[in-house]
Specification:
- By secondary structure, the chain is an alpha+beta fold.
- Among the domains are: 147 residues, no CATH class; 134 residues, no CATH class.
- Helices cover 16% and strands 48% of the residues.
- The protein has a 30-stranded mixed sheet that branches. Strands 31-32 form a two-stranded antiparallel sheet.
- The protein is elongated.
- The N and C termini lie far apart (125 Å).
Length: 674
Amino acid sequence: MKKAIKWGAIIVGGLVVIIILILLLAPAFIDINKYKPEIEKLVAENTGCTLTLGGDLDLSLFPWAGISISDVRMGNPKGFKEKDLVTIKNFEVRVKFLPLLSKEVQIKRFILEEARIVMVKNKDGRLNLQSIGKATEEKQKEKKEAPAPKTAGSGLPIKSLTVGNLAITKSSILFIDHTTGGKQEVSDLTLKLKDVSLDRPFKLSFSANLDGKPLSAEGTVGPIGKEPGKGTMSLDIAVKVLNELEMNIKGTVVDPAVSPKFDIAIDISPFSPRKLVEALGQPFPVKTTDPEALSKLALKASIKGDPNNVTISGGVLDLDQSRLNFSLKAKEFNKPNIAFDMALNEIDLDRYLPPAGEEKAPQEKKEGPAVKTKTDYRPLRKLVVDGTIKVAKLKAKGATVQDILVKVRGKGGLFHLDPLSLKLYQGDVNAKGSFDARQDTPKSQMNLNAKGIQVGPLLKDVMKKEFLEGTTKADVSVTMSGDEPDRIKRTLNGKGDILFTDGALVGIDLAGMVRNVKTTFTGGEKPQEKPKTDFSEMHAPFTITNGVVHTPKTSMQSPLLRLLAAGKADLVQETLDFRVEPKFVGTIKGQGDSKDRSGVTVPVLVTGTFSSPKFRPDLKGLLQDSLKKGMEDPSELQKMIPGQSTDQGTGQTEGSGSIEDRAKSLMKSLPFGK
């Protein structure tokens, strides 16, 4: 028995030695290069592309099974004028032979040097890569009738895989698009993988130039697992773009081929979008009032989810001096269902607006009448949203707003803003509203309450004008429908009440006018300082009916003046129709005037359009009011304007122009007459 075992071992050992000797000596006796024409012919028959093996084939079988070749060229399919699809200067692969017998793949070297791939799209839209092969209709039919059995989940037909050195160096990919005449090239492409294994992470290093601009990535990936696409794979990669943008991606991907899940942290270091675009050789696409705007951008966020849910947490976006903290949850992407929370510390929107006087690009004139496309609100009816937005400080159109809080909720096409609150120039604004897109014509509603707002600084910052001061209180409720300006104005309905207290009309001194009426009406010298008329209260109640604003009794009260206004403003036609009745009361004793001026009124009619309002004294109303108060002789009006005489029947005074012209001149000196 022992002799049998001994002789068996000797025989097996001898066979192994013989096999090793054969593997070592075979390449020396076998001329593999004589098979090059057969290989080239076989590739051409199956791909439809010519193959040229310019260099010699070098074969080894033990201890490493390997092959190397140089100067490989593969031509383009027919119909493409570019000569070569693929060129390779050097290729080498070395695999350990004996472990292959036990399904263990140990690759010592996999080297690809100066490989070049030319991807081409013809004018007919065909890609050269899609045209490789000569599959016949019979083969395609055969594939449909007898589909290949699914092998997903069966794993690799090997026990293990290790790669000592995998390198692709000095390679390039060129894409030529004949439909547009454009070209793009990835050059100097280098990819290196070290210590590759199925059961542990491996190192990755990548660098290339995109149209001459540098890109790189470096880090660790894996383990891949014995069944690629299953299990947990870690990522820790640093990406650099154009030496301007740096991004770190760290996390895990689970079962990417079966039921993918991911948990990844993204960290984009501060960079300048302007410098990044400049490095691309392109003009910056956005023109801003502040040329330094959009000079800093950074982002941090953790993203976790699967094909049905995504959660973003710990989000921080830095834009110039602004910082946005945010989180977001999204699910049911076919709807989608979104919940978010955003908090912004500050932002000056005026910096990001186009420069003043920036001309808009001329629009091409289209022949025939313009066709209005109807807005499709069906996507909004699927959307489910629940979010909160907070802004500590915001500047827009010169106005500064603080402590903004907006909560939005909606589903099925009905959305609510409740609450919407903010602080504005020492005052508070609280509002709530809704947007209903359940029908083809949307409907909107808004209720607003404001109090304590200092209107003077607000007008100065927004309109760059000073004509009104005071503390404002307002209650407004409006409804509207449609999504076009004309439709919205025609359907605007509601009511409101605006009250100004402890304020002033800037630009007119009514006390001075009463003290020196002659100077006022005859154009005497005006004071050097800016005139002002204080008032205790200005009250403007109004209603809106189908785009027409009605005010039955807008009033202003001051120690000297009572002002009443009534009329309407048509937002659709943009026309005005008001009667303003200022009334001077009391005396101004101690200011050079002891005469009682109670009852003197000069009604004013305001007509015309928003863009060109017209102001004229209501002389008929003035005369009727005077007669009602006992002034039977119209010449009594002359006594109210010292230094003038009225020619009865003509309405002319001794000064230049009629009373109407002078009253109109006076009205134009008021802020609302300018």
